[in-house]
Design brief:
The protein has helices at residues 10-26, 384-387, 402-405, and strands spanning 60-72, 76-78, 84-87, 91-104, 108-116, 126-134, 143-152, 189-200, 210-219, 240-249, 254-262, 267-275, 278-285, 299-309, 314-315, 353-358, 364-369, 375-377, 382-383, 410-412, 415-424, 431-437, 440-445, 454-460, 463-469. By secondary structure, the protein is mainly β.
Length: 477
């Protein structure tokens, strides 16, 4: 097989558009974008051959090349009914695939795939398209749900009266076709639904930071077609596929994905290293097979991919999930069990005005504020300044941070925000946490949608500072 860029095939291009763009326009989606997921062999972001429920960020573009070797000592020959009748010797070939994927509105991913392009060889061209759409609201944290579809054109062979179909390895094979009463082999269109759970890894000092993703889905088409044909596959999953990945941080803008999956037929495994948007990987397909046929054999290959984030104007930087700041405070030692008092005098309690403040954890707190501005807490109305550092409000605050005192801009979701206006007080019921910067949580108005024009950071308990996107900084700031 040879692999080169296409110069025509307008009919396939029309089908590609019909697969995914209609879904992206008419089904309401949500923000489930991720730049940490690896590139699949042929169909945009995902694991090795199965999709995940997240999508590329808005205007992110990824281009991927993958190739693997196929080698069996005896290639099976089948008759019109699909029964094996003889073998025709050694079969060896290098199979290559290419794809381009585009993220739209942080809720959809569409793309094209080139699985075989050579007008001069038997089988003709095999092209395709794919689309995936997030269907959960952004408020659902740590879990994504998506629906999608893949469409791949059929190869062309003689005689033309047989209904040939694409196969899961992506190369022209005249044996893969409708086989009368044995199987319909409906493999051109592959609809699916998929769910992915995102979990932080084990928090241990001797382990690098890492995330774990678990994926489970069901699909038709290539995920199940041909499962009843012995030489094609012996899986009985009825279209169920699953996979998992460990995403390991290797320092600044480097992420290693260790993957394993089952695509309804094959057990696959692989590694992929993301070096700030440039990705290289190695993988093995069909680890559950013993070289009975080209489809039931072990295969090894390599992958190269580049991911460009248009909204940020550069290569996509992989990021692990945000680690929330510990929501705990240190308490002073308890008083002695026995206290002897010679005389009890009721102290005069300080006076103040009852006030509700919003903490960095997003929780309201009732305190007393004196005329001098002191914050009184507890039954004895003790100034909080006298209890520090043993007792303090929960959460992380920007006060004293170099980037805050130096009026530096902050970056969130590929956008730059600058300090805007004077500090203010906010109601916890009107804001929600959306991320963090340098260990300090970021909040945004609950009624606003991504991307946010303004975010808020907690400066001190009850005091917030707005940061606005697109705000021009004055000279000297």
């Amino acid at each position: 097989m040879t692999f080169r860029s296409p110069v025509s095939r307008t009919g396939a291009a029309a089908r590609i558009g019909a697969v995914g763009l209609g879904l992206a326009l008419f089904v309401p989606g949500a923000s489930s974008q991720s730049s940490k997921m690896p590139s699949t062999l042929r169909y945009g972001s995902g694991l090795i051959d199965v999709p995940v429920a997240s999508v590329l960020p808005h205007l992110a573009v990824s281009g991927t090349y993958s190739g693997f070797g196929l080698s069996v000592s005896d290639r099976l020959v089948v008759n019109r009914a699909g029964d094996v009748i003889l073998t025709d010797g050694v079969f060896e070939r290098w199979l290559a695939d290419g794809s381009i994927a585009l993220g739209l509105f942080d809720m959809a991913e569409v793309g094209v795939t080139i699985q075989h392009y050579d007008d001069e060889t038997e089988g003709g061209n095999i092209l395709g398209g794919f689309a995936r759409l997030s269907v959960l609201p952004a408020s659902v944290q740590g879990f994504d749900l998506a629906v999608g579809a893949r469409y791949v054109t059929s190869p062309t062979f003689a005689p033309s009266d047989l209904e040939y179909r694409p196969n899961r390895l992506g190369y022209p094979d005249a044996r893969v076709r409708n086989l009368g009463t044995k199987t319909e082999f409906a493999a051109n269109l592959t609809p699916y639904a998929v769910a992915t759970a995102h979990m932080p890894g084990i928090d241990a000092g001797f382990l690098p930071d890492h995330d774990i993703t678990l994926t489970l889905g069901w699909g038709g088409g290539l995920f199940g077609a041909g499962s009843d044909v012995e030489w094609y596959g012996d899986a009985e999953s009825d279209g169920v596929f699953a996979g998992s990945a460990i995403h390991v941080g290797l320092g600044s803008e480097r992420l290693l994905a260790v993957m394993a999956e089952f695509n309804g037929f094959d057990v696959n495994a692989g590694l992929q290293l993301d070096m700030g948007g440039i990705r290289v990987g190695a993988f093995a397909l069909g680890l559950n097979y013993d070289d009975y046929s080209t489809f039931r054999s072990r295969k090894f290959g390599v992958l190269a991919s580049v991911a460009f984030c248009g909204a940020a104007g550069g290569l996509c930087k992989p990021k692990l999930s945000e680690r929330p700041a510990p929501d705990t405070i240190a308490l002073p030692a308890p008083p002695p069990d026995t206290v002897v008092l010679e005389r009890t005098v009721a102290p005069e309690l300080p006076t103040g005005t009852p006030t509700t403040i919003c903490l960095a954890t997003g929780v309201q707190a009732q305190v007393m504020i004196t005329a001098r501005g002191d914050t009184l807490v507890g039954p004895s109305r003790t100034p909080i300044s006298e209890l520090r550092p043993a007792v303090d409000f929960t959460g992380a605050y920007a006060d004293g941070k170099e980037w805050f005192t130096g009026d530096e801009p902050l970056e969130f979701e590929e956008r730059e925000y600058s300090k805007s206006g004077e500090p203010l007080r906010l109601d916890c019921a009107e804001i929600e946490r959306v991320g963090e910067h340098e260990g300090v949580p970021l909040f945004a108005d609950r009624s606003h949608e991504r991307p946010f024009d303004i975010v808020y950071v907690p400066v001190t308990p009850g005091v917030w500072q707005g940061y606005e996107h697109g705000l021009q900084r004055t000279r000297g700031q």
